Amino acid sequence: KVIDIVIKRPYCEVGFFIEKVMSLLREIQNDAVNSNVKVSDLLRKCKILAYRLGNNDFKSWVEFELNGYSKIEILPNYRVLKVNSKGHFSGAFGSGLRNADMPIFCLPSELQENYSIARFSSPIATLESLSSSDSGVLTQNWDPIILAKYGSAMYEGYHCIQAWKIIPASAVIGIIDTVKTKILNFALEIEMINKDAGDVEINSNPIPQDKVSQ
């Protein structure tokens, strides 16, 4: 019967008919398990879902992931990674240390945490581009002001002239994978409550907001 209906409809209607076969929730679920789909594209579908559900928390999360987080205070835990640092040191008579481990404990306690972690506030599309790094390693440079102030307190007789955080590209891939998993879990939970929730009018509130927020 489905084949008969498609054959009898004009071409302009066939595309519409096929599009309606799969719900938005199912599209999101399928894209979330498809390694060829970019998370940034997946999030745009989530933006449509967020407006149809009328849920501000979900809207905000999608917007932050697409456009980046403007404040460190609102950065999710999965975008904060534990890292190590390396540095170059210069000494007397042309001596020096190359790629030496940075002894974080030499910094004041209020700075140690900041230089033991890497925060990723950039849009998800930026992280996707970083994850394809050929070297397999990403870096974040230390603040030169910190090096000028504390660079001589790390190795006796040496001063740090450059330092950077070392971030495995696999860790960035992990952030992206976490976002995809969160989207998949959310879409599945919403479908369990109302399988048609993704195909209603904008702000229809097909599910009570307290359940969506949960």
Report what the structure shows.
The chain has 214 residues and is an alpha+beta fold. The protein is 48% helix and 17% strand. The protein has ten helices and six strands. The chain has a four-stranded antiparallel sheet. Strands 1-4 form a two-stranded antiparallel ribbon. A hairpin with a 4-residue loop joins β2 (84-91) and β3 (96-101). The longest helix is centred in the C-terminal third of the chain and has 25 residues, at 169-193. The chain is elongated and about 75 Å long. The model is unreliable at 1-20 (pLDDT under 50).
Question: What is the topology?
Answer:
Layout: H1 2-8, H2 11-21, H3 24-32, H4 39-53, H5 56-67, E1 80-82, E2 84-91, E3 96-101, H6 109-112, E4 117-119, H7 124-130, E5 137-141, H8 144-150, E6 158-168, H9 169-193, H10 209-213
Antiparallel strand pairs: 1-4, 2-3, 2-6, 5-6
Summarize the structure.
This protein has helices at 2-8, 11-21, 24-32, 39-53, 56-67, 109-112, 124-130, 144-150, 169-193, 209-213, and strands at 80-82, 84-91, 96-101, 117-119, 137-141, 158-168. With 214 residues, it is an alpha+beta fold.
Terminal residue distance: 40 Å
Order of H and E elements: HHHHHEEEHEHEHEHH
What is the tally of helical segments? 10
Going across the biggest sheet, name each strand in turn: 3-2-6-5
Strand content: 15-25%
Averaged pLDDT: 86
**Low confidence ranges:** 1-20
Largest sheet: 4 strands, antiparallel
